[in-house]
Amino acid sequence: MKEGQKLWTRDELILAANLYCKLPFGRLHRLNPDVINLANLVGRTPSSVAFKLVNFASLDPSLKARGIKGATNASNLDRIIWNEFYNNWDILPYESEKLLAKYENTTVERLNHISEDEIPKDGKTREQIVRVRVNQSFFRSLILSSYNNCCCITGIQQPELLIAGHIRPWGIDEKNRLNPRNGIAINALHDKAFENGLLTITTDFQIKISSILLKQTKNDWVNNFFIKYQNKEMILPSRFLPDIEFLKYHNNERFKQ
Questions:
Q1: CA atoms within 13 A on the CB side of 97
Q2: Which of 75, 108, 116, 212 shows its CA 20 to 30 Å from the CA of 204?
Q3: What is the pTM of this model?
C-alpha cells in the first residue's frame, strides 16, 4: 500500500460490491456518476472506487469463464466480501441496501422509492414488505445491468419493457430468489411464455419453443413473436451466465414440449 493510502473497511467494500452488482460491466470507470457518488460517500477518489470494482470483476467466475481476468491484486478482504455476496444472495443485497441508505443519510424505503402509503407504519409486516420490495428492486438492477438492458430473446433495449425473470420461480426457491444466475432479462410477453412453459432456454443457451406454438404456423402473430426464435441462441449477459442446473430444471419441469 502506498504511503498516505488507507485500507478499505468492510462497510466500504460492501458498498462497492453493491455498486458492482448494479453497473453494466462496461461502466466500471471513474467517470461514471454512480462511481463518483460512491467515492464521495466513502471519502475516496473515483479512481480508487473504480479500481476496487475492477478487483471484484477479477473474482467474478462468470467473467473468468469468458477469459476476462480484470485486475490481479484483489485483497483478502475483497475476496471475503465477494464470497459473502456470491454465497448469500438471500442476505447481503438487503443488508448492503440498508448500509447504503445509512451512508446516504436516508432510509432504505426512500432509497428504493417505496411510498409510505404502500406499507404498514411499523411492525414485522412492514419489515417483511420492505425487505421484499428492496430485494426485488436490487434483483432487477442486477439482472438488467448484467444483460446491458437487453432482452435475452429479442434484443429489445428498452428498460421499461423488460422484466428480471426467474428461471426457478420466486415462490419455490427462496435461497435463489436473488441469485443472478437464476435470472434473465426478458420482455414481458416472452417472460409470460417462459413462466408458462411455452418457451425455454437449453443448457447450451438455445431458445426452444413449445410444440403448442410450433403447430400454429398459419398464425402470423405466433410466427413473428415465437416460431422465428426457435433454435436461435439467446443473447448472453456480460456476467452471471444462467446456471446450467436451473436451466435443466426449467427444461425438464416447466417446458411443455
A1: 26
A2: 212
A3: 0.89
Min mean pLDDT across 113-117, 118-122, 149-153 is at: 118-122
Max distance between CA atoms of the chain, in angstroms, equals 72
Give CA 11 to chain center in angstroms.
Answer: 21
Half-sphere exposure of 196 (CA within 13 A, CB side): 9
The answer to whether the beta carbons of residues 72 and 59 sit under 8 Å apart is no
CB contact at 8 A, 29 and 35: yes
* Rounded Cα gap, residues 89 and 249, in angstroms: 20
Q: How confident is the model at residue 101 (pLDDT cuts 50, 70, 90)?
A: very high
Q: Are 210 and 238 in contact (CB under 8 A)?
A: no
Rounded CA-CA distance 15/98 in Å is: 10
User: Tell me, what's the pLDDT at 3?
Assistant: 46
- Mean confidence (pLDDT) of the chain: 91
* The three cell numbers locating residue 172: 419455490
Cα first-last separation, the chain: 58
Q: How far apart are CA 251 and CA 15, in angstroms?
A: 36
Q: How far is CA 20 from CA 51, 192, 197, 201, in A?
A: 11, 29, 32, 27
SS (H, E, C) 48-99: HHHHHHHHHHHHCHHHHCCCCCCCCCCCHHHHHHHHHHHHCCCCHHHHHHHH
142, 22 Cβ separation under 8 angstroms: yes
Distance CA(252)–CA(257), nearest Å, equals: 9
Kindly state the DSSP code that residue 234 receives in the 8-state scheme.
P
Nearest to 199 by CA among 221, 242, 232, 160: 232
Indicate the Cα dihedral angle 120, 121, 124, 126, nearest 10°.
50
